[in-house]
Automatic annotation (TrEMBL):
Pfam short name (any one): Dus
Keywords: Flavoprotein, FMN, NADP, Nucleotide-binding, Oxidoreductase, RNA-binding, tRNA processing, tRNA-binding
Record-annotated site: Interacts with tRNA: N96, K184, R187, R300, R303
HAMAP family linked: DusA_subfam (MF_02041)
Stated name of the protein: tRNA-dihydrouridine(20/20a) synthase
Enzyme Commission number, as recorded: 1.3.1.91
Cofactor section: FMN
Similarity annotation: Belongs to the dus family.
Amino acid sequence: MPADLNYSGPQLAIAPMMDWTDRHCRFFHRQLTRRASLYTEMVVADAVIHGDRARLLGLNEIEHPVALQLGGSDPAKLAEATRIAADFGYDEVNLNVGCPSDRVQSGAFGACLMREPMLVARCIEAMAAAAPAGPPVTVKCRIGVDEQDPEIALFDLARQVIEGGAEAIWVHARKAWLDGLSPKENRHIPPLDYKVVYRLKTAHPDVFIGINGGIKSLEEAATHLSKVDGVMLGRSAYHTPRILTDADMALCGVGDVAPDIETVVETMARYTDEHVADGGKASQVTRHMVGLFHGVAGARSWRQILSRDAVLPGANGDVLRRAFASVENGLRAAA
């Protein structure tokens, strides 16, 4: 049975990131942290309903707890996609109200839905009703878009989605500037405003409020957890994934022994062997592991071997084994 998410206490999550948090990335991250909630890339509701569900939604049992993030703005389609997600065993279904990409805007969902809180609430209500005994339905949003006042836009959205049945709200603590900034620029140019998220939590003490955006370390995450219920790490977890080895103890209070990195690499090497045997490519796995030894002597060699050798014909898990041999001495010196 899927693990139950606990929205009553502190929680760590790895953010949904397009083109990054695929099933191979999630399998890797689960080797580093047993407690963090993992999220899929955003999947459009139409694709869930009409597409290759095994490819889009298939998961490994080890990934739990894992959430499916949906994109869309049609309550009926989102409800159907939620029913399908429940059948696949997802532990949470999250509605994207924060992605600023042009493609998402053209489909009338993502961050532009910050302007339509009543529609978002109808979507959440339909999703929650679609699988009443299924996974909790949650929202991930920005604090506002363009000229919106976050004190109005964020708080109005939160009130309405809570009334619609959302069990948690994850807030990326930046505005999305849909007029004038690219999606990449929207990840770092709009200033962070963590305090407005803290005020949202104060306004809704009985609702899980999580925070996301620009959080680079476990120390920063712990500071946020004194104000809100959950912290979502994004690029820091992806580019420097070894920070996750201490996350269970530092943020969740469990797991007094950090994962053994050599064991993690060998597990991923075997996983890569199996993936290649099933017709996949080694690079589809190893690309998520390039930053594993950031800051360790030999990390450059690790990166070079993965980048160069994993794309060669016949590449398999041995690429990871060779790369680890190049960094092993540096790890011993750092111990």
